[in-house]
Amino acid sequence: MKERWTPYKKAEVIRKVGQGEISFDSALEIYELSEEELNSWFDRVSVMGLSGLKETKLEQYRRIKW
């Protein structure tokens, strides 16, 4: 079963990578994340701040402009 990622856990991973505690590639391996998933966390934080990490998949889908 895949781990549930709370906004707090996501922020902790972003902080570790951002401060150089672990590399981006190490984070992918350690936390079993896809590159796309981790990049999306960084993108959301850069656009919306930490509150962007609270966004659900449904909210992301609704935000897409067709």
Description:
This protein has one domain (7-63). 61% of the residues lie in helices and 0% in strands. The protein has 4 helices and no strands. The chain has helices at residues 7-18, 24-30, 35-48, 57-63.
Task: Give the gist of this structure.
The protein is mainly alpha-helical. Helix content is 61%, strand content 0%. The protein has helices at 7-18, 24-30, 35-48, 57-63.
Distance between the termini: 33 Å
How many DSSP-defined strands?
0
Poorly predicted tracts of residues: none
Series of H and E elements? HHHH
Mean pLDDT over all positions = 85
Helix share, percent: 55-70%
Gross morphology is globular
CA radius of gyration: 12 Å
Largest sheet: none
* Secondary-structure content class: mainly alpha
- Total domains, how many? 1
Strand-helix topology:
Elements: H1 7-18, H2 24-30, H3 35-48, H4 57-63
What distinguishing features does this structure have?
4 helices; 61% helix; mainly alpha; single chain; 66 residues; 0% strand
